[in-house]
Amino acid sequence: MKRSYVGVILLAAILMMNIVFTQLVVHQYYYENYGVTLLYAGLNVLLFPVALFIYKKEKNKGGSKGYEERNLS
Amino acid sequence: MSDRNNKVPFDEDNYTHNINRNNERMLDRRGFMKTLAGAAGVFAVSTLPWGAVAAKELMGLGDKEYPHQKIADVKDVKVGDSVKFHFPSEHDSAILIRLSENKYVAYQNACTHLRCPVYWVKDEQEMICPCHHGKFDASTGAPTAGPPRRPLPGIKVEVKDDVIYAVRVKRYEA
Ligand code: FES
């Protein structure tokens, strides 16, 4: 059973950045730095496709195979 | 076709016998990653409204002048007293404080911590939030104690013909 934690760790890091950016968006909005608000909101949205990409790439890594994969060949 | 199922043992090619429900609900690595990616999506969607409002504000739609609104007559507000009013809309509660003969300050009094109403304590010359004991400096609106970190949004006031008017909400000078 080989393990691959890379995807999990990367996705966790992305979620962490999501939380941080969301917090920044809210704070900068109330500080009325609207440009910065937009920047962080944009980054937050961009993180989603990145997360999807990592998921797509990593889902079949690792040794404990899921049902579909076991039946592929 | 018809006699195939009568054979014992018959050919198992019907794709139903091999459905394996064991561990179906187990959260494995892949399921966990799916959850993480989904959560990222939720975060992305939930910041969209903030971005939209910020963009609107950037394009100058939010900085409009509101019609001057009468708060009170000068003779009704003694030095050191406060008056509650609503500005710019009736959902934004605000407070006016007469600090001295000619000095009036006004703030939107939703606490910048969790939006409890801040009120004026005359004896301590401070604005106090009852929820978590946040305190604000009356002459600037800056937070002086407790959880709030941002100053209260100030409201510009104008005195004309012995009547106090609210003119506009001040921007932060950040
Ligand atoms: S809401 Fe005012 S201090 Fe928490």
Automatic annotation (TrEMBL), chain A:
Keywords: Membrane, Transmembrane, Transmembrane helix. The keyword Transmembrane helix applies. The chain crosses the membrane at residues 38-55. This is Uncharacterized protein.
From TrEMBL, chain B:
Signal peptide: none annotated. PROSITE patterns: RIESKE, TAT. Keywords: 2Fe-2S, Disulfide bond, Iron, Iron-sulfur, Metal-binding. CDD domains: Rieske. It comes from the Bacteria. InterPro entries: Rieske_2Fe-2S, Rieske_2Fe-2S_sf, Rieske_Fe-S_prot, TAT_signal, TAT_signal_bac_arc. This is Rieske domain-containing protein.
